[in-house]
Design goal:
With 287 residues, this protein is of the alpha/beta class. The protein folds into 2 domains: 28 residues; 207 residues, 3-Layer(aba) Sandwich (Rossmann fold). It is built from 10 helices and 12 strands. Helix 2 packs across helix 10, helix 6 crosses helix 7 and helix 8 packs antiparallel against helix 10. The longest helix is centred in the N-terminal third of the chain and has 28 residues. It starts with a helix and ends with a strand.
Length: 287
């Protein structure tokens, strides 16, 4: 028992050391070039360039990255979890007509989903009214007549909006600095989401694998939706995991076949759909 506890501590320490090294090494090789540092009503905001990537972080300059774009190629997706969301969207039986993204950030995910689904109506929600300004000025975000931007709390939106309004794809990508807002970790929140999900729709939740609330969050979605799948990190240096919730069983072959129709767009996005499909398949844990 003692040796088992020691092994757990050693493994935890090794993981923490690897993650720390991964975070500090780029700073030693590629210094940050600060583009914006401001404090608004919601957080301290940093926007900086590093190694051909522009990042937005909240709180500390060394906090987890909230948004990012490649400066030399705005079409390419930076974050692995966003590639996973794009791939998971192919579980839908047809292209989504209505998409809701809670946690706009600098608008990078909204932009990528717009490029993938040009006919979809996309609603982006964020409680910080300045985020859209940051997105347009520093991240080349461009809106269109099929996009809406709502300044409110995501929970309040789902709770107060008429149930007749539903979405085919709901993405929960909201963080308070480096943690999920506490009221998002409640049955009231997950039930409110379910009330606005179309019958064949899916919910994608960007979350942390290494967190104190990971198991609690998984159980919340499991107790709310008929089918819940967890895509865990591919290796120990990745902290994000993807929760996929749906009322219908996931058909992974459908995801594979649908992705083939978007091959040219996915290539431009630097999304290797076959790799992502294998990735989801190999780490897919049916709850």
């Amino acid at each position: 028992m003692v040796f088992h506890s020691i092994n757990i501590l050693l493994i935890s320490g090794l993981i923490a050391a690897i993650i720390l090294i991964k975070k500090i090494m780029p700073d030693l090789i590629f210094p940050k070039c600060i583009r914006l540092h401001t404090v608004d009503d919601f957080s301290e905001i940093w926007i900086f360039d590093q190694n051909n990537v522009r990042y937005l972080v909240m709180g500390s300059l060394n906090a987890d990255h909230q948004s990012a774009v490649f400066l030399s190629d705005l079409f390419r997706i930076v974050f692995i979890y966003q590639k996973m969301i794009v791939t998971a969207s192919f579980l839908l039986p047809s292209p989504p007509e209505r998409i809701c993204i809670v946690g706009f950030g600098a608008g990078t995910l909204t932009t990528h989903l717009r490029r993938l689904y040009p006919k979809a109506k996309i609603l982006s929600i964020d409680c910080n009214p300045r985020m859209r300004d940051y997105a347009e000025k520093y991240f080349s975000f461009q809106s269109d007549d099929r996009m809406d931007f709502l300044i409110t709390d995501g929970f309040d939106f789902f709770k107060k909006t008429d149930r007749n309004i539903s979405f085919d794809l709901i993405v929960i990508d909201a963080f308070n600095k480096s943690s999920v807002p506490p009221h998002f970790l409640s049955a009231d929140f997950t039930n409110a989401i379910k009330n606005h999900l179309s019958p064949d729709g899916i919910v994608c939740v960007n979350s942390f694998h290494y967190s104190t609330f990971a198991e609690r969050e998984k159980l919340l979605y499991k107790n709310t939706f008929a089918n819940v799948y967890i895509c865990e990190p591919f290796n120990i240096t990745e902290g994000n995991r993807l929760i996929v919730a749906t009322q219908q069983p996931a058909q992974l072959e459908r995801m594979k076949n649908n992705a083939k129709q978007y091959r040219s767009t996915l290539d431009l996005m630097n999304v290797d759909w076959e790799y992502q499909w294998e990735r989801l398949w190999s780490t897919w844990l049916d709850c």
